[in-house]
Design brief:
By secondary structure, the protein is an alpha/beta fold. It has 16 helices and ten strands. β5, α13 and β6 form a beta-alpha-beta unit. The radius of gyration is 23 Å and the shape is globular.
Amino acid sequence: MAELRSTKGEPTTPATDMYPRKILEYMEGFLISKTVFTSCELGVFDVLLTADRSLSAEEISQAVGASLDGTQRLLAACTGLQLLNTHWVNGKVFYSNTEQSRVFLTRSSPLSLCQSIQYSSRTIYLCWHYLTDAVREGRNQYEKAFGVSSKDLFQALYRSDEEMVKFMHLMNSIWNICGRDVVTAFDLTPFKVICDLGGCSGALAKQCTLAYPECTVTIFDLPKVVRVSGEHFVTEADQRISFHEGDFFKDSLPVADLFILARILHDWTDERCIELLCRIHKACKPGGGVLLVEALLNEDGSGPLTAQLYSLNMLVQTEGRERTSSQYAALLAASGFTNIQHHLTGKIYDTVLGHKET
């Protein structure tokens, strides 16, 4: 039998001998996501944290109010995902949290991702059911997923107080983990008066005040977001953080040395981005700047995979997309900013800094 060769003349593996390991992993990836979502929703990791000792499947099932059979299968899957440790005593298995689960998957942890996971499970996951429609139509799928009009993006995102609080918790958990990296990617010491546009829960503003003791931060956001942030997230102890209510496309922006747009521009088309950046350039003090915080795509579009997937998520949920550093630089330059630089943090979110000439 003749040897199979590729178009480049190299030997290839016969199709009958191939095993589609990667494809099978991708096909079943949602099973992993839902296992994590369900474990957090039931409070498996919280029960183990509170107990402060290893627990049996029987004890965990009783604590979370679930069937023993279902709990045993869920715990086995979490063990396989290296989210739980197992300990055998007299032929019986007991479970405990791994260090990562204790830190990131318990509700009481300051670095908890539970709220973010809940938002992924109950909002993003439902939108992604209509990904095929989003790709075909080139627009977000809020109307199909939730029965609400998506003409006003943030009316759809904040369609109820409950949904708004979930989204704010999502932002809070992200910046509790990634915030310090992005606010220290560049030395922001020269910027004393900072405005965090769309600052939401104030988590990034808090990271700024921790990193730069001489700065003050104004969170500019919609009135209802400001109200909820003051009720749930920012306290009187955060004395260097203040609020300014408004719509950044319509209302006057406060004067500032630095404007921060964290995960803002990826929500919008290029035209809307330039519209907003021009408004910022006008309000920015001479010698000031604007800091963009986004998941940057490689210039050739080859990755990172996370940013590529996030760009699909922007299609499903918003009007925008993820971009390369040069694409953001072009938007900044078109709005009057100069001396544009970018910095890769090595984590999910990167930064782009543009300056206003003196």
